[in-house]
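Handout for the seminar on molecular recognition.
Each group receives one record of this type.
Step one: identify the two inputs.
Step two: read the structure output and locate the region that could contact FE3-S4 cluster.
Step three: write two sentences on what you found, then compare them with the reference statements printed after the record.
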Amino acid sequence: MYLTREEERVYDGEHGWARQVCMRILVRLGELFGATRLVPIYSAHISGVSYKTLGDAPMEFLETTLKEGGKAKVLSTLNPSSIEEDYLANKFPVEFRKKQRRILRIFREMGMDLSLTCTPHYQYFPPKGSHLAWSESSAVVYANSVLGAWTNREGGPSALAAALIGKTPNYGVHRPENRQPSVVVDVRAELRNEMEFGALGHYVGKELKDEVPLFKGLTGYSLDDLKQLGAALASSGMTSIFHVQETAGEGLERIVVERKEVEETVQELSTAQTEEPDLVFVGCPHCSLEEVRAVAHLLRGKEVRGGVELWVCTSRHIKERSGDYVAAIEAAGGRVLCDTCAIVTWTSKLGVESILTNSAKAAHYAPTMNKAGVALLPLHDCIEAACSS
Ligand code: F3S
């Protein structure tokens, strides 16, 4: 792998331990995956921010990296943390809160933006064709497939290394030939809501693993539908990019998806033993302004019933722009939570055993990450279930 003189100096430690370790991570990855050089990135997005998923040892690594001069070289945003200060923080042990705050302090002192969201693309649009190093799989798929930016599906450490160096190795979908569709997915079912787009994504991810799907037959979808599709695709599979009907896809392998597959996937993801959820969770990935508006609209004239929590998770950026909708949701008894989500916080410590959600990605992770049963329903039905007695 070719390195410039300056990159070699960083590699040899002339610019300190932190940058040397980061450069070595990037070069090692590049060599493993056949990169020829490093390319400058427009931004980094770093996962592994939640103390629940990070644990103690990586926190020590972060502290040392900061002490040794680690500073972000490009715009760098962060994935959700495990606490939210206004409503949830005091419900958890002091030790957890202290450690989560310590992690956030380290990132802030490294110069990261404490965005704490999995939808950094609602905060800014990376330019089309720009190289990124993002490590939230749902955001990666959205960036590549909807925004036309170029990012591999980084791990937390490689996104951090890229943030501190300002570059990433040019393998994977940083190369045009790896962005091309490899399998046509012929969808012969009319998808009726965002949940079914998620179910389609989950089914295709499981079938195709890291192939690049070209979806045919999708109609009348919104950007939020594509967000659900991509998030679920990247949960059950490993792809970083999908296409929707841009090219003919002639000569490619083809799979057919009918209503049966979509419905069976919804059933498979619905593991709850009860129809009475402890928590109704909307906002995986974090809600857009339009989704917050839709929840407020559906709650009109209703009240969240006792014994049920309704969480609408979004970014601070979106919450600040949703004043009237947030007021309407909270007046009805729901909570609009920023900086976290039901999956990366400790719902089991709040007594949550069953979660109702409209997100196939959340339904995929909740049984293992939250030890909770899940029911998967479209947004309209989630709000009905949160409110009806
Ligand atoms: Fe975001 Fe949490 Fe889902 S980080 S993508 S809301 S699991």
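Reference statements: Residues 79-80, 118, 138, 231, 284-286, 313, 341, 343-344, 361-362, 365 surround FE3-S4 cluster (CB under 6 Å). The chain has 15 helices and 15 strands.
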